[in-house]
Amino acid sequence: MADTIEISLTVNGQPRTGVAEPRRNLADFLRHTLGLTGTHVGCEHGVCGACTVLVDGASVRSCLMLAVQARGRSVETVEGLAADGAPLHPLQAALSEHHGLQCGYCTPGVLMTLLELQRELSGRPVDEAEVRHALAGNLCRCTGYQGMVDAALAVLNAPAGGATPETR
Amino acid sequence: MTLAERPAGVGISVPRLEDDALVRGKGRFLDDITLPGLLHAAFLRSPEAHGHIRSIDVAEAEALPGVHRVLRYEDLRPLLTMDRIPVAMPSGALKFDVDPFVLARDEVCHVGEPIALILAESRHVAEDAAELIMVDIDPLPAVVDPRDGLAPDAPQARLDCPDNLVARTSAAYGDIDAAFADAPVRFAERFHLHKGGGNSIEPRGVVARWDPMEERLTVWNSTQMPHRAKRLLVTTLGLTERQVRVVPPDVGGGFGPKFVFHPEELAIAAAAKLTGLPVKWAEDRYESFIATVQERDQFWSMEVAADADGRLRGLRGTLVHDHGAYTPYGVALPYNSATNLLGPYVLPAYALDISLCLTNKVPTTPTRGAGRPQGTFIMERILDLIAERLGLARDEVRRRNLIAAERLPFRTGLKTRDGGEMTYDSGDYAECQRRALAAADWNGFPERRAAARREGRFLGIGLANYVEGTGRGPFESASVTIGPSGEVVVTTGACGQGQGTVTMLAQLTGAALGIAPAKVRVIAGDTDASPLGLGAFASRQAVTAGSAVHLAAGKVRDKILAVASDWLEVAAEDLELIDGRVSLRGAPEVGRSIADIAAALSGSPGFSLPKGAEPGLSAAADFQPDAITYCNGTHVAEAEVDPFTGVVRLTRYVVVHDCGRLINPRMVDGQIIGGVVHGIGSALYEWMRYDATGQPLTCTYSDYLLATADVVPRVEVHHMESPTPLNPLGVKGAGESGTIAAPAVVASAVEDALRPLGVAIRDLPMTPDRLVRLARQARAAA
């Protein structure tokens, strides 16, 4: 086996450590080393957006980032949006309500993109063009995007104190 | 059948049962599966479009630490009952046996064809090892353009086929010579059409495990067709039905290619059996571009005969279809194009000669729409051309040619591919077009165009009509079982790849039994749970599996009512099923739980069952459609085109769709909108390109473009509901239809936008560079 390296980082607020080859990318590290399979891999060349996670709050194509580059940093994945058994995050609930997912494979990446947008907006209203621009880096073959755009508009333009507790 | 007779559970947008796990990242997709001792697979694939394999030296690769085995054709062949994988569908038109091999035997016929299978402790190591395999290939001339491949002096795309015309067939009826004799309008046109791959965001993948104790193979397969995969594994591995289980995990999109049984599916299963260890192969995107089936190129050459009032007299011509290097399917793809060309129109005579040419590229098989968008594109372009020649409005020329509602059921004169009559069962095509034009404010468009022109913008509008044959047989099977625990379990051969199949079937079952859909457990596509089944193709599962589940749930309901009627001593008509109980209408306290009835029908040792009852609260049903049911629709789109950059912006998109009764209207909308956007991709962006030697050029999503959220319009969907008499639910398929008219309507709108320049759209896709060139040529000619 090739040389391995110990990688410690924060994932969804919890300290995690895994051992992996230096060449292992962050997506594979999350999925296969830490067992967080919610982050999906669609193209492995940074275009489809299925593997989008947040690193120190900024969206990253985890297929294009080496796991070692995430050492000591804070990573957020879809699993961090709602604890097991807990109510869904408003973005998750809205995606379902507006039929913004079908096969669900691109969905985790879509959610992380929208989470970043939600924080950037911090309550500022958003129009459809801006949502579509934000989602332009997430390929979806099922939905035609309309349901996820509607879901995003519903959550992001909800009245303050309404459906948007996520404003850290 | 009337709309008033809407069956229970039909017409309600039940929230999807699939969603909770998926939005939490708790779905279980193929690559999420891990097993103890799992080996990871990579394939060494042909770098040549065509060549003869002289030798494969795996010694260095096998010596790499972490590599378990490297397998070639000769290593796997002893496990197999036959040289080739018998995947071709029955077709008298196929001249040669061009079924694929599990791994290349001595000839490679396309870039990406698997040559060797590496099993290692990780995918990284397996790919490292692939680079250490020494393959000596003598390159051979490649057939890339199917038109060249049919030339008398063309090289052979496959050395085992004497020529490249793998099949020739036709679609014809009526007196075509008479239609053309003295026709007041006659002209000819050529079209070069392209349609891309399926591009599910989850690529293909297989995990296989051989259990030596039970001598049994379990295959988790990201497939649309688990039962077909099982049957092919049974046949090729020489196993019995009992020894093979195929089960689809959550599948991240299908769109056609996952219908096809690819060589990798057999190779991984055989490797698991050979090594006794579980094996996983998760396709990467590069493999997906070079080894997963696509749809690709068609070359049409058509002659048109019409009357002076724009009514069609006849169409004749030729279609040359790029078949690729193997036959994983048959001739259905171009035949669908040929038959779907008719659309909702009266075409008195038709003669199309279809040639399928072997090429040294990935095989072609249907992707969403399955050849129909191309046929619809041809017919709709021709109608626009007739309108232009005669100075008629484009909506009017269609109105004159549409089949009148009172003529339905309408026999077209063609045969379906299974030999039945191609008969449109129900619908009102003129009304559908009327509603679409009204919704899109067709009549108000000239004002919008004039306003745009004043600002220097080129705005156009287009329309297109289509039909789609859906709900193909031969059957789908289902069972509904309630045990003493009260759990309702539905099993079926149907399976979902995002369509919401589980929700749809739970909804129908729940409605029949008075149980919340969320309490119904649907096991879809597991071959252990359903001995018989087909799967996802031809927009069929609501029609076939929906009907089968509806019938099975109805039988279970009848059993419940019979027992309860006896126990409660009331007539069955006075009973109702609510929340898991059967009770006297209006007196819910007088009743029993369904679980009690299930327990009674499970029997107690030595005691009789309730009077007249058969054992088990369970029923099975198969639904065999008598004929294909045809959905239809009209699309209207507005496009703004910049003739200097070639960029097309769709500013409005209206669909009126008729798929009979809607089971779950929101999910149907989702199917239509998703299909439209797929079709917009075919119209404007997606293009799988090859160089002159057969090397694929567009193998990333930066080179091969899918439609993204920022370039697609909001799609406005309206429904008509013309129930079909061909199934008990009155439903027609909806999974593919959105794609079918999109290239045609976008072409119509783009051409209309550039009408001041005289640009003619004949080819797909309409990429910016092509449009700029067309605009330049038109200006030069003017």
TrEMBL record, chain A:
PROSITE patterns, A to Z: 2FE2S_FER_1, 2FE2S_FER_2
Supply the alphabetized keyword list: 2Fe-2S, Iron, Iron-sulfur, Metal-binding, Oxidoreductase
Q: Give the superkingdom in one word.
A: Bacteria
Which InterPro entries does the record match to this protein? 2Fe-2S-bd, 2Fe-2S-bd_dom_sf, 2Fe-2S_ferredoxin-like_sf, 2Fe-2S_ferredoxin-type, 2Fe2S_fd_BS, Beta-grasp_dom_sf, Diverse_Oxidoreductases
S-adenosyl-L-methionine as UniProt keyword? no
Domain 2Fe-2S ferredoxin-type span(s) in chain numbering: 5-81
Q: What is this protein called?
A: (2Fe-2S)-binding protein
UniProtKB/TrEMBL annotation, chain B:
The source's domain of life comes to Bacteria
Offer an example of a GO molecular function term for this protein.
Answer: iron ion binding
Q: Which UniProt keywords apply?
A: Molybdenum, Oxidoreductase
Query: Which stretches are transmembrane?
Result: none
Give start and end of each Aldehyde oxidase/xanthine dehydrogenase a/b hammerhead domain. 24-141
Which Gene3D superfamilies does the UniProt entry name for this protein? Aldehyde oxidase/xanthine dehydrogenase, a/b hammerhead (3.90.1170.50), Aldehyde oxidase/xanthine dehydrogenase, molybdopterin binding domain (3.30.365.10)
Protein name (Swiss-Prot/TrEMBL): Xanthine dehydrogenase family protein molybdopterin-binding subunit
Q: Give the organism, scientific name.
A: Acuticoccus mangrovi
